[in-house]
Amino acid sequence: MSEIQPPSIEEPEVERIPQPRDRSPAPLPHGRRRAALVIAIIADVIQWIAFPLFTWGAASPVNDAVDVVVALIMFRLVGFHWAFLPAFVAELIPFVDLVPSWTAAVWFATRSPSPPR
Fold first, then answer.
1. Are 39 and 73 in contact, with CB atoms under 8 Å apart?
2. Residue bearing the bigger pLDDT, 93 or 37
3. What is the secondary structure of 1-36 as a DSSP string?
4. Which domain holds residue 41?
5. Is residue 89 in some structural domain?
6. Is 19 part of any domain?
7. Cα 54 vs. chain centroid, distance in angstroms?
8. Which of 17, 31, 42, 114 has the highest count of CB atoms within 10 angstroms of its CB?
9. Number of separate domains in the chain
């Protein structure tokens, strides 16, 4: 009796997926970080000083325009960061815009990551 051999099966060539690289963003240059922080502080101070003009008055659209311009500048200087979205929304709400949300958002977006433990 002859032995029955199973047919040989060749495995197909498989392309190996490269290991993911570190996708952390490049460190932000110190000058850009400082410029973003200064612009955020200036925007928050303008909104504190001009608060009587911006409260439900005719200058309220000017306040919104300041916020849009600051948001665009922050995106240009720092890049997209999730901290800018709640800051932008908070700046559009009356009386909540007195909180220095642009300053806090820039600090949060540009802070150094904590070292691994």
1. yes
2. 37
3. -PPPPPPP-PPPP-PPPPPPPP-PPPPPPHHHHHHH
4. 30-110
5. yes
6. no
7. 26
8. 42
9. 1
Query: Per the domain annotation, does 52 fall within a domain?
Result: yes
Q: Express as a percent the part of the chain with pLDDT over 70.
A: 82
To 10 degrees, the CA torsion angle through 49, 53, 55, 57? -170
pLDDT for the residue 1: 58
- Burial level of 101, CB count in 10 A (0-12/13-18/19+)? buried
Q: Which two tokens stand for residue 33?
A: 């970080």
Please state the pTM of the whole predicted model. Answer: 0.68
Q: What is the DSSP string of 46-94?
A: HHHHTHHHHSSSTTHHHHHHHHHHHHHHHHHHT---TTHHHHHHHHHST
CA angle 47, 95, 49 (to 5 degrees): 25
**Chain mean position to CA 37:** 14
Whether 115 is in a domain gets the answer no
